[in-house]
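G., the chain you wanted modeled:
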Amino acid sequence: MADHLLDHVNLYLDRSTEDRIAYIQAPRWIGHQVAMQAHERLAELLARPPGLRTRGLMLVGPYANGKTMIAERFAVGHLRSAEPRRVWVVQTREGAGLVHFYGSILQALRAPMGSGRDVGRKAEQIDHLLCSLKPRILIFDEFHNALRGRTRDVEAVLAFLRRIGRQFDISPVLIGEIAVYDFVNQTAEMATRFDLVAVPRWQYGEEFLALLDSLEAALPLARSSDLSDERLAREIFRLSEGLIGEIVAIVTTAAIAAVRSGTERITKSGLEQLRYIPVSRRRRAPVRDDLL
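Predicted structure as tokens:
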């Protein structure tokens, strides 16, 4: 039994290499402070009394920083514990215009969609579904995709968000990059309808070190890696550039390499052998020249 691992993770040390690697690669929830704060705000929206002018929420931050996982975990948790379903996640489609936006909603609500581009008919279909399903929260993931069209289309999307609150008592939750914050705050009228939960890059400090400790405890390696040791932690932070998706990817990749090599721990030399390229440098990485 390894003292640095959680009890249920210890059990995997006796499994095959394939099983251990599969466990390491599996998605895992990381309940850090911002994630828990976001869940509290979502729970408040779900429990609020009916209103004619509902408030919504923005989860805004850089790519690869866990915003989608926060929302999906909340939605799945609600789905398991409640009947009828009151939280729906809309994967906002790429492509400008109301047709794409309405298509995203219809797909999320599992409605049949024709091949036509009749915006009016799609809007009527959505209204009928919202009236029937009575959702309390609609979560729009990658909402910045809906903001890349013509000005009148973007204004129509924002008008839709205002209308579903007034007409159907729905709180919209917008997930995306900084463009979401900018568009919502262009006018005071929209700015008063949405609260913000910022999901920023991680800073090097105690919370980051605690995150590394929690990751180490969840990965079935027989030997302690001391990920929060200064030298190792600084290297992981440098490579990840403070993005939690990158932090997890780096540690996961290094853990798999440690299992396969038999070293059973993550080391600084092991990280160097990964030749991991930070996101900001990939466009100019030497490997790019080999692709020409």
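The CA atoms of residues 9 and 197 lie 32 Å apart.

Shout if anything looks off.
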